[in-house]
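Appendix B. Worked example

We walk through a single record from start to finish. Start with the input: the chain for N-acetylmuramoyl-L-alanine amidase, Listeria swaminathanii, length 242.
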Amino acid sequence: MTKIWIDAGHGGKDSGATGNGLVEKNWVLAIAKQLQTELVNAGFEVGMTRTNDTFLELSERAKKANGFKADLFLSIHFNAGGGKGYEDYIYTSTPAKTAEIQKTIHKNVIARITKHDMRDRGMEKANFAVLRETAMDAILLEAGFCDTTDATILKSPVYQQDFCAGIVAGVKDIFGSGVTKYQAGKFSTSNDAISGKNIKGYLAAGTKVFVYKETEKTLNITTTKGIPGSWVLKTEVNTGKR
Ligand SMILES: [Zn+2]
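Next comes the structure step. The output line below is what the pipeline stores for this chain.
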């Protein structure tokens, strides 16, 4: 099963950025928990740096994720310093694969947050400890600025939901969705899946799949991205919000 590490920035004695009534350590913890729920529902195994208001050194965060053998490290933050917009960071020297992952996450997040008037500050690189010391692909997300008009956006539950949804969609794009709950029946057509007729086999629990096509009640899922696969009932598979 694909393992995702969620690193809620700051905590305990380290509040992170503050402004307009927002406290970074609290905001990012709420987001981290929401992300945890959504990623677990989508079939991922999730590890967390912290699930309450505790302080951890940066190296300790990376160490925990390395011990968990995560496939991806997501560090959640917001910004201060007078700017506006969303940005994300990967380490200064990374394999091309990490840059691709950043592109995928960035694209999915931006697609869902620009309607909130959150600006796109672009994809950045930085020598941050959590990016440097993690053994897996790692990305740090800055959700907006707490000390400008971005604060109103950050406070919006709809923005928070869309921000999370963007990350989850990006992770699914990268790793596919794990079918975890059920053995889903495989059918040649969407109608067959609905009627339950002409079953041509089963998709085992834990299979990694990508969604090729979607109808109201069914999904066409495939193990090879971009190539049509088999039809299954949505109620048979566990792919997050579907
Ligand atoms: Zn921060």
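Two observations about the output. Residues 9-10, 16-17, 24, 77 surround zinc ion (CB under 6 Å). The chain has a mean pLDDT of 91.
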